[in-house]
Structures are given as structure tokens and as C-alpha cells.
Amino acid sequence: MAELIRESFASVEAKADELSQYFYGVLFSVSPDARALFPINMATQRNRLLRALVYVVQMVDRPDELTTFLCQLGRDHRKFDVLGRHYDAVGVALIAALKRFLKDDWTPELEDAWVTAYGIIAKSMREAAGKEVGPAWWKATVVEHRRAARDVAVIKVRTEQPLPYRAGGYVSVEVPQRPRMWRYFSPANAPHDDGTMEFHVHAVRGGWVSRAIVHHTRVGDVWRLGPSLGALSVHHTESRPLLMIGGGTGVAPLLAILDEMSRWKHNPPVHLFFGGRKPEDLYALDDLRGLAVMCPWLTVTPVTEEGTIAGGDRGTLSAAVAQRGGWKDRDVFVAGSPSMIRATIAKLLAGGTDLARIKYDPFTLD
């Protein structure tokens, strides 16, 4: 089944935009009330659907990881007021879109594979949502907004009631400037008793939400936050050395993990590579170097593609990591843009790092 799904998806991936448009056309025809669950502008939403499908397809023969991801997704989707009939409608739309674009390659065997796979997806998400007893979302008030770089803002919010999350995870965020346009961001701090969470946001080109946050957020704005998700976390009983690789604001979840580890008595060695295109993109470098002074177990290496930084490396993050030697004995956390994550993982695998030791989260862009 995994092979059939991968091969068939690969053959239509080049037509992703048309497939997504057709999918949503069928979905809103079959379930008109589902339209209210989505933002007015659907361009970014179509891309998010494709990324989710690609991620699921890649994990289709790794059931434990896939189930964990789908259960998190099911709990997160409660904030949309998703009903059982919406899952059914999505299944109908997905099969209709695949059938249309695969044309003569669509066979009864392939249909059975996709129907079975989607059944597993929907069942996992439904059951996880049904078991969840916590809030579908948390209200958070902006208490600070400052520019850390030209296109980067640091926003601190305070929740009215504690939002349980682990350092290194991410949450979905809805801001008043862009209603119904939820985006994933990682808190840059470990959980604090006062309910504050800090987000680092880069205004990406064409990013409806990220640009609104960076340029138009005001103290007093009220955000909505979804439940915690993600695969990046460290337990205080773990002793294996860590390699952390963060590109731009992708360093935020790694900062949260380091914040938590700094409170422990004993830690394994941690080597963090923090990269950006230019020196000014390394907006958190001073904080990281300050932390490294207090924490002898932490080594920080800045990396820039243009310009130089004292004590830093020149080039892409993936190349800098590979040039520094073998990392076979380390668990690896990678956070940044999808292209950076892919390039870095490829270099690590070529250097002999076991894929099972590499952790990353798929949703990192606006």
C-alpha cells in the first residue's frame, strides 16, 4: 500500500496547484458549510494542504510516527470546529481529485490503497479529538512587541490560563489582523509560571500572517493559540550528546530547549549551529553566546552565507555542519525552512548519521 501511494502521489505532484484547486472545489460542493472553516484567501491554504499530504505520504510506512503526528493534528483541528461529516467530505474530495488527475493510472487496487490510507488518517484524527478534554484554543494577550532585526519581531504574549506545552514544540496561532488564517510558530522559551510565551517571527515574502505580525502587532492584541504539537523535546534523564541546527527564526524551538536545559543540574554536550544569510540575520546570537558563557556544556557556532562573524563559519548551514566532522554519536534537532531541513538531513545521512536520530517538525513556514 505504501509503495502504491508514494508512486501515485509522485506522478501528480507536478500538478499540485490544479489538484488542490479541484480538491477544494469538490469539498465545498459536497459540504458547503465547510467553507466557513477556511480563510477568505485560499492561496496559502492550498499550499498547506499539499505540504500535509507530502508529509503523510513520506511517513506512510512509519506507522508509529505517523500515528503520533495524526493524533496531534486531530487534537489541533478541534479549534476549527471540525465535525465528523467534514472528515467524510474531505475523503470524498481527496479520492475525486486523485482519480481525476491520475486518469488512466487510477485502478481499483490504487483506489483501495488510498481509501484505506485515508480511513486510517481520519480514524486517528477523530479518535484523538474525541478523547481530548482540554480547551480547543487558548486566549493570549500581547504584552510586548519589539523588532529584533529588519524583518524579525519578538512578541511576548500571556495566556489567561496555562497552556501545557513542552519546550521545543510549536502551536498554531490566529491573530486579529488575519482571522481564520492559523499559522504554526514555536515558542522560544520553556514554560513559565506566569503564562508568558515568546515568539520569534520573520516577515517572509508574501506571508500574509507573518508580515501582519511583524509590522502590525500592537500591545493589547488578543491572539488565539492551539494546543502544543511537535517532535522536538529533551528529557532531563537523557545523556546522549546533542547537535542542534537552527536557521533564522527556526532557532526559536532550540532556544526553548536550551532555556529548559539551563535549569538542570547535569546536561550532555550540546553543539548549536545558528545560521543566516548575513550577519544581521543572526538576531539571537548575543543571547546564545551569553547562555554559552553560563553553560559550559553548550557550544555555539554562527554560520553566514555572506559576510563574516568572529568565531563563525562561512557557507550554508548544511555545509558548515558537514565540514565540522562526524556527528554519528549525537541526536540531532533541525529547525528552519523546509529547504534547509532537507539539505541538512541529506548531508547528515551522507555522513553516516542514522535517520532515526534526526528530529524535525514539518510545518515551519508562514
Low-confidence stretches: none
As a percent range, the share of helical residues equals: 40-55%
- Name the CATH homologous superfamily of the largest domain: Globins
Radius of gyration, CA atoms, in whole angstroms: 21 Å
Number of strands: 12
Q: Explain this structure to me?
A:
The structure is a single chain. This protein has 366 residues and is of the alpha/beta class. It folds into 3 domains: 2-131, Globins (Globin-like); 138-225, Translation factors (Elongation Factor Tu (Ef-tu), domain 3, Beta Barrel), CATH 2.40.30; 242-359, Rossmann fold. Helix content is 40%, strand content 18%. The strands form 2 sheets. The chain has a 6-stranded antiparallel β-sheet with strand order 4-3-6-1-2-5. It has a 6-stranded parallel β-sheet with strand order 10-9-8-7-11-12, sandwiched between helices. Strand 1 and strand 2 form a beta hairpin.
Short description:
With 366 residues, this protein is of the alpha/beta class.
Short key terms for the protein model shown above:
Rossmann fold, 3 domains, Elongation Factor Tu (Ef-tu), domain 3, single chain, 12 strands, Globin-like, 366 residues, 18% strand, alpha/beta
Layout of secondary structure:
Layout: H1 2-12, H2 16-30, H3 43-58, H4 63-76, H5 84-102, H6 108-131, E1 138-149, E2 152-159, E3 171-174, E4 183-185, E5 196-202, H7 208-216, E6 222-225, E7 242-247, H8 252-261, E8 270-276, H9 285-294, E9 298-304, E10 313-314, H10 317-323, E11 331-335, H11 338-350, E12 358-359
Parallel strand pairs: 7-8, 7-11, 8-9, 9-10, 11-12
Antiparallel strand pairs: 1-2, 1-6, 2-5, 3-4, 3-6
